[in-house]
Amino acid sequence: MKMVVVSPHLDDAAFSLSLAIESWLERGWVVEVINCFMRSEHAPFADMVAVHENDRRTYVSGLRAKEDESWRKRLGAGRGRDLRAVNLNLKDAPMRLRCLTEEVFGLATNPEDKSWGKILRAVEEACADARTALVLPLALGGHVDHRTVVEAVSPWVKANPGRPVGFYEDLPYAARLSEEEIGAVAAGLGLELRQVMVGAGDEGAVERKRKMVLSYDSQIEDETAAEMAGFAEKYGGRERVWGTVEFPE
Q1: If you ran DSSP here, which 8-state letter would residue 174 be given?
Q2: Which residues, in sequence order, are bridge partners of residue 33?
Q3: Which of 111, 118, 114, 97 minimizes the C-alpha distance to 35?
């Protein structure tokens, strides 16, 4: 089985699906993560004192790539587990849309945005085999980059019925929403979806999740890592995916 996970930013797949990806890899499945908006100047918890303003973009983008590599190593990439990355190297919203960081939530998406076509082509190529499962964000929290991913790919999903497709709960945003709010977003996709719990659910799962998300310590503090781990704890050390009937248990 091949699982294709679309991650708006380098940390989104890890924040929302570390335990699920761990479980899929342990089954011997191939997991391919499509990283979309990788070029960024956003690193609120990194030490930037010695970084010149002109070098900020290169420094932050490189730092985030190193954090992602650390997460991949925690999952056993290169040690008999087939965890692949497709890096689109697109600009994130503040760079691409010329907006402030605090404006990315609720900002209107733009179908003329060239990133739409690049994301769609990457998904089509990765999912050339009809048996491949596609996993997208629900876009909880309203971040324009997350909504861009969903809106770019949703027409393809609806045009290819019978595909195994799932939608993951974007963290940390999902941890700050009610069940009713999450369910309403899932219902708004216009698909018949069921709730699938993924992950081993063993005694150490929640702590592993906390350590894995802390790979991205330029993006989050310990409190946010604990918040995301606690969200997995309410699912018994698992993660929830809203999937079509074909999506694997």
Answers
A1: G
A2: 5, 85
A3: 118
